[in-house]
Structures are given as structure tokens and as C-alpha cells.
Amino acid sequence: MKNIILLHGAIGAADQLEPLTALLKTTCHVFTFSFSGHGKTPFHTNFGIEQFASELKKFIEDNELIQPSVFGYSMGGYVALYLEHIHPGLMKHIITLGSKFEWSPEIAQKEVKMLDAKTIAEKVPKFADELRTRHGGDWEGLLQKTAGMMLSLGTQPLLNDEALNAIHTKVLIGLADHDTMVTLHETVAVFKKLNNAGMYMLPASKHPIGTVNTPLLANIIEDFIR
Fold first, then answer.
1. Beta-carbon count within 10 A of 195 CB
2. CA atoms within 13 A on the CB side of 114
3. How far is CA 128 from its chain centroid?
4. Terminal-residue alpha carbon distance, the chain
5. Nearest 5°: CA angle at 170, between 169 and 172?
6. By percentage, how much of the chain surpasses pLDDT 70?
7. In 3-state terms, what secondary structure has residue 199?
8. What is the pLDDT of residues 8-67, one digit of tens each?
């Protein structure tokens, strides 16, 4: 069976990918892990796309995986593509879903506003409880560091045109049809800049991974890596 690594998104963790894991494990060897600072995995000194890409590379090496396929949800897709850019040929396939590719200072500021821990605790206490349960006592620190990462991407996106044009592995770029965070325009733009890419639209789905049509997503992934 083929090896595939599933990567979670920002302020997420590996447990959110369990429904997808359950469907894929009938045809693939499925691997998951939580990036540092997520899912009660301790924070590393560094935090951001470059650090997470380093952790993905180490995970591949530690598990002796030769050109695994990688599915990256949201930030996870950005991490996988960035790693493939700096280490060409490390992965055989990359599938993304809902990855935010268009970054500017204005876009970053807009996204950061939704990561204020005090506002979340006051206005969306259920979500605050979910974050506390998933990440432990320093969930507020995770939000703060994620905001810093987004501001950094706003001023210096890591997946610029040069980086995207340098990626030659097979990539499948995906977007949920009701995603309000990621636009069709930016998704299509990245699809066109990659050398060996396809694209898919996931129907009746929103940006949060818990809202997506998981059986259909599993079928799309299986078909692509087959």
C-alpha cells in the first residue's frame, strides 16, 4: 500500500484528521502528527511555516518514508508545498485543501483579527473550550504565535511565483465550494503557476475541516495517488 501523511491546519491538530484517516487506511498506510505547539505537542523555539516544514521533513526521515504522498489541509498544504520547493523530490504527490496562498499586510491583518483569545473566550466560548481541550493550557499562546506567523506571511509570502514555478512534483490543489477564507481566484492562480498540477472543487463544504465531504475527499485523494 502507498504511504500518505495527513497534515492539519493552523490552530488544528492531528485528531481532526481521524475521519479521513479511517477512510484512507483501507488502501494506504496513513501517518499523522501534530506540528509543534499544536495538539499538546510542545512549542519549539521557532514557530511558523519554515519550522513546520522542518518537522515534516524530520517525520519523513524518521519513519523512513521514500517519496510519500502528502495531504495538507489549509496551512498543512502550504507547509508541504514549501518543503517540496526547498527539497525537490522529497514527496511523490501533494494534495491540498483550503490552503491560503494570497498574503499581503492587509489580508494578514484581517485574518489576525479572528485570533484574539479574549474575544473568542467572550463571544465564542464553545470554540475557546475546543481550543483549550485540543491544545491544553497555552492555547492563547498558540493563537498569538499563529497571528505572528500570518503577519510574517503578509509581508513576505514564502510561496511566491519563483517558488511555485520551481515545484515539479504532482500536485492537486483543492478548494471547498463555500470557503469564505480562501478565494477561487488565488487557488486557480497557484494551480496555473505549478508545473504538474490538477485542481478540484469539493462541493457542499466550507473551510473548517469538520464540514467537508470526507468520503468524497478520500476518493479524490485515492484516485490521485493511484
1. 12
2. 9
3. 21
4. 10
5. 135
6. 100
7. strand
8. 999 999 999 999 999 999 999 999 999 999 999 999 999 999 999 999 999 999 999 999
Alpha-carbon gap, residue 161 to 142, rounded angstroms: 29
How far apart CA 172 and CA 135 sit, in angstroms, is: 30
Amino acid at 19: P
| DSSP SS3 for 216 | helix
Global pTM?
0.97
CA geometry: angle 135, 141, 146, nearest 5 deg: 90
Cell 489580508 belongs to which residue? 107
Q: Counting beta carbons within 10 angstroms of the beta carbon of residue 64, is it exposed (0 to 12), middle (13 to 18) or buried (19 or more)?
A: exposed
The pLDDT tens digits for 110-143 are 999 999 999 999 999 999 999 999 999 899 999 9
Residue 14 per-residue DSSP state: G
| Strand arrangement of the beta sheet that strand 197-202 belongs to | 28-32, 2-7, 69-73, 93-97, 170-176, 197-202
